[in-house]
User: Which sequence fits this backbone?
């Protein structure tokens, strides 16, 4: 027995890895990555076997495809089942523009292209035949150009369908993946049909012709992997990446936080398609042929299996998954089949000797998909890492009460309207669901710096009113004005931009994002970094990122030490009350002028309720107008400058808390007619 | 044949195809209506169903194209074949739901769909590896009886296909509208939570939807075999995509819509094949899918779909 006071036992692992562990983590990581790159770069010289190098070169192509699909499926949560179509488009783009397949007759139109070296001139045979054009686009030009072409098609096919619910996208992409090879087969003029396009020119690198040797392709593929990993990481930790993840986690909440969903989904689709387009060019250059069969549904499924195996959304994971599956097919399965045959001979079992694992590869893919989805959805290397638990002191620390300590600089600024102008004004607003009128000709006014409470029995149309104001539901009649501007029918992200942010009654935080990331999504409408800025990390982007992070932390201090120790925790790990706080912080981060809170204190105990009420009061003192739905009347009495009572979608009373409480209509609505009679 | 005869002939063919797509679309629509999941496994449940049909017919001693029956033996064999095929396919559906889909039913996001793709792929490859890649001749016990209508030909085979499909759809309609469990099914499709609180056993309803949907897919598989006289491991993909388009066309989740959508797709396929080109049929049907999704996402029937947000 070891005495409790003795130091913990050092395992063999500790002893072996101690020197490594002493290196700081960031440095260790960098070292590990450098070693990996060096190993990958030296691999062809270490191995030397042509077959192995060829397999590795193919594997690099699949790794880049997996990285591209990961942006679509892993980051943005859009299931694309026809990803191979973009691969095909990139492949045929290079194939057509570097072979003798298409030869239009020569005219002076082509002269500038000839001067640029993009086309050549084939002299006619002199017997009356005209001169022809020979496309000679360089591989190095086509690598980015194919990305653009594929991205263009991504937008073309994504645009009509990305407005729909995610499920439909799966089926549409499935169809798209089916159509592209059919079109390729049916347009032999361009693609030589099912015979396949031949004579694709191999790349030329400063006079060095790549030819049929796999080694140079391996290095190009490796360089592409490194580049795309870099791009993926930059995108993931940016405003764009956070917006994608928000869409993946909860589309409606993402829109209500200012994310333009259609635009960002299209962006993900286009970038993913672009990765595939470039890879197609590399792949077809290596094979020097392209046929429709190379891009059928099984290829799309294989890439999907790669990212599911590695971990959707995990950059390291999908590269690993792609390499495992690609090399599994070319290296291990051959050997494994022979081992099983040998084993079968050894124990004299007939069927073991006849197994051909290569032919069952698609069955193995299916089993991997099912197994991973049932037992390990996060994949081999999960995208979300675990966070260190809080210390006992942090967990039991007394919550800070009362006034907000943070300055929240600039909150509520810009709400200076001419005196007497309402901040929010709804006129005769009506919303019907089928035969039910949820909101009926409602007039409602919120003045600047006011706290207005909306109360009423369940089903009286309060949340529907919020949904109509924030653009989630289209009104059937009436008008909404915000700061004098008509905002009726605007999409929800545009309404956030104008200065209205909201929370939801049944909590719509982004569960697989950290507290800080949740709040950062709130700043989406107030920031401008685009995809290019995120990848290039220009000084402007860096300044903006630093500023929003600072602002997010400032907003989180509203709740004192409730959220601050947990900023790097995943939102799904929080308590119910803390999730409500995150949602409020996320809305405040959008720098709204009007905050709509749908039952902010639901699920909080009396002490927490008081705490939140005080915090809301401070927010209002900073210049924020608040419209809240609340059932706890002590909160309403405490906070509200004005109370509006709804019943069956109609306003039945409006006034100060005292006025409303003594109103007969209100008592009847809450307690029923008989109860009033008895009282 | 002049234009009118061609048209009539293709309408006859299209209705037969359409009957098959309708049956298949019903499975998509029922499962989607209840658990909001596009069940990609359904594609290949249909394919496996056609093999069940093949094996049942072969078990009755009917092999190849030569042995035909008539009168009561024919009706008996067909009844037996449909019942056995539908039972087997229905059981396959239950198996898929119980073993895999139930545990991910509550999940949001792409995981449940990816799971059904995996299941579909497993079914596809199990058949490929066990039965082989060759197309298999389907027994055809229906004697060749032809009626001449102008220049077009109507066969007994087609009449049988129509009557079986019609009987199944009328039966389903009656079941959903007028039985206790059918009403529970409708309630679950509208609002799962509310149905649960009203005492509906949602698990049972979901299982039943999978059973019925898969059984109908099996019937469609058998019809495919009887109609085309062959089956193969690859038939699930394009038939499934067409049936799904049919379900979308009729408004996904809408049972009557799926039946009509199936007929429309069948007619488009046969007429498009005749008057445009067979090799472009897939492109045409896919374009319809996109156009409907863009302009009428609730389907041509115009009924609204219960949407969870």
Assistant:
């Amino acid at each position: 027995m070891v005495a409790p006071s003795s130091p913990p036992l050092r395992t063999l692992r500790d002893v072996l890895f101690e020197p490594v562990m002493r290196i700081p983590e960031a440095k260790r990581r960098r070292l590990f990555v450098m070693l990996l790159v060096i190993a990958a770069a030296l691999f062809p010289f270490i191995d030397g076997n042509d077959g192995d190098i060829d397999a590795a070169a193919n594997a690099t192509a699949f790794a880049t495809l997996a990285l591209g699909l990961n942006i679509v499926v892993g980051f943005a949560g859009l299931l694309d089942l026809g990803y191979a179509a973009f691969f095909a488009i990139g492949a045929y783009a290079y194939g057509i523009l570097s072979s003798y397949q298409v030869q239009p007759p020569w005219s002076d139109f082509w002269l500038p292209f000839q001067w640029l070296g993009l086309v050549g001139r084939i002299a006619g045979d002199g017997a009356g035949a005209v001169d022809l054009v020979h496309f000679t686009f360089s591989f190095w030009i086509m690598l980015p150009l194919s990305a653009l072409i594929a991205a263009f098609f991504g937008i073309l096919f994504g645009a009509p369908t990305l407005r729909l619910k995610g499920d439909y996208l799966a089926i549409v992409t499935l169809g798209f993946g089916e159509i592209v090879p059919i079109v390729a087969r049916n347009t032999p003029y361009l693609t030589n049909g099912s015979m396949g396009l031949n004579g694709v020119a191999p790349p030329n690198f400063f006079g060095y012709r790549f030819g049929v040797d796999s080694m140079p392709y391996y290095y190009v593929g490796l360089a592409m992997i490194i580049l795309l990993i870099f791009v993926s990481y930059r995108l993931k930790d940016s405003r764009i990446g956070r917006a994608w993840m928000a869409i993946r986690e909860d589309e409606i909440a993402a829109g209500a936080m200012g994310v333009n969903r259609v635009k960002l989904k299209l962006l993900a689709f286009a970038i993913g398609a672009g990765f595939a387009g470039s890879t197609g060019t590399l792949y077809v250059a290596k094979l020097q042929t392209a046929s429709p069969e190379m891009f059928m549904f099984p290829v799309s499924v294989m890439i999907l299996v790669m990212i599911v195996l590695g971990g959707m959304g995990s950059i390291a994971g999908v590269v690993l998954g792609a390499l495992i599956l690609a090399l599994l097919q070319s290296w291990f399965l051959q050997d494994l089949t022979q081992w099983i045959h040998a084993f079968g001979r050894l124990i004299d079992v007939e069927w073991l000797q006849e197994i051909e694992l290569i032919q069952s590869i698609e069955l193995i893919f299916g089993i991997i998909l099912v197994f991973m989805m049932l037992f390990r959805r996060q994949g081999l290397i999960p995208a979300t890492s675990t966070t260190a638990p809080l210390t006992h002191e942090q967990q039991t620390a007394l919550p800070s009460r009362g006034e907000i300590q943070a300055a929240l600089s600039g909150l509520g600024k810009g709400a200076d309207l001419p005196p007497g102008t309402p901040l929010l004004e709804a006129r005769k607003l009506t919303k019907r669901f089928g035969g039910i009128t949820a909101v009926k000709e409602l007039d409602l006014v919120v003045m600047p710096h006011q706290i207005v409470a909306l109360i009423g029995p369940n089903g009286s149309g309060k949340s529907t009113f919020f949904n109509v104001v924030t653009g989630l539901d289209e009104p059937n009649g009436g008008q909404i004005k915000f700061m004098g501007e008509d905002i009726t029918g605007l999409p929800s992200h545009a309404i956030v931009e104008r200065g209205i942010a909201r929370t939801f009654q049944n909590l719509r935080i982004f569960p697989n994002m950290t507290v800080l990331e949740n709040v950062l999504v709130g700043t989406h409408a107030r920031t401008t970094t685009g995809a290019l800025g995120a990848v290039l990390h220009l000084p402007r982007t860096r300044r903006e990122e630093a500023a929003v992070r600072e602002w997010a932390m400032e907003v989180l201090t509203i709740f004192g030490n409730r959220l601050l120790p947990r900023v790097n925790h995943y939102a799904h790990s929080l308590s119910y009350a803390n999730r409500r706080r995150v949602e409020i912080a996320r809305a405040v981060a959008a720098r709204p002028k009007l905050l709509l809170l749908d039952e902010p204190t639901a699920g909080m105990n009396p002490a927490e309720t008081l705490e939140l009420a005080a915090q809301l009061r401070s927010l209002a003192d900073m210049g924020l107008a608040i419209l809240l739905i609340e059932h706890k009347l002590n909160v309403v009495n405490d906070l509200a400058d004005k109370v509006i009572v709804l019943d069956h979608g109609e306003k039945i009373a409006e006034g100060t808390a005292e006025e409303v409480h003594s109103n007969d209509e209100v008592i009847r609505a809450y307690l029923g007619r008989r109860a009033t009679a008895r009282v | 044949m002049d234009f009118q005869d061609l048209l009539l002939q293709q309408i006859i063919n299209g209705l037969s195809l359409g009957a098959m797509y309708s049956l298949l679309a019903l499975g998509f629509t029922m499962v989607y209506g209840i658990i909001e999941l596009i069940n990609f496994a359904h594609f290949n449940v249909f394919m496996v169903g056609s093999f069940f049909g093949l094996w049942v017919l072969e078990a009755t001693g009917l092999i190849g194209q030569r042995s035909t029956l008539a009168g009561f033996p024919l009706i008996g064999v067909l009844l037996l074949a449909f019942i056995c095929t539908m039972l087997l396919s229905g059981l396959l559906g239950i198996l898929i739901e119980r073993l895999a889909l139930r545990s991910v039913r509550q999940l949001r996001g792409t995981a449940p769909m990816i799971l059904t793709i995996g299941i579909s792929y497993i079914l596809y490859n199990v058949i490929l590896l066990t039965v082989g890649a060759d197309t298999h001749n389907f027994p055809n016990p229906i004697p060749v009886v032809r009626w001449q209508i102008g220049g077009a030909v109507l066969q007994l085979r087609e009449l049988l296909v129509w009557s079986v499909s019609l009987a199944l759809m009328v039966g389903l309609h009656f079941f959903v509208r007028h039985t206790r469990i059918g009403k529970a099914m409708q309630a679950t499709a509208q609002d799962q939570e509310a149905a649960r609180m009203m005492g509906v056993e949602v698990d049972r309803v979901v299982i039943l939807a999978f059973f019925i949907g898969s059984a109908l897919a099996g019937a469609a598989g058998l019809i495919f075999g009887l109609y085309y006289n062959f089956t193969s491991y690859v038939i699930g993909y394009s038939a499934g995509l067409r049936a799904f388009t049919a379900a979308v066309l009729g408004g996904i989740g809408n049972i009557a819509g799926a039946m009509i959508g199936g007929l429309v797709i069948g007619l488009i396929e046969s007429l498009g094949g005749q008057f445009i080109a067979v090799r472009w049929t897939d492109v045409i049907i896919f374009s319809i899918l996109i156009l409907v999704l863009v302009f009428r996402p609730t389907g041509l029937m115009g009924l609204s779909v219960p949407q969870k947000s």
About this structure: Chain A touches chain B through 43 residues (CB under 8 Å).
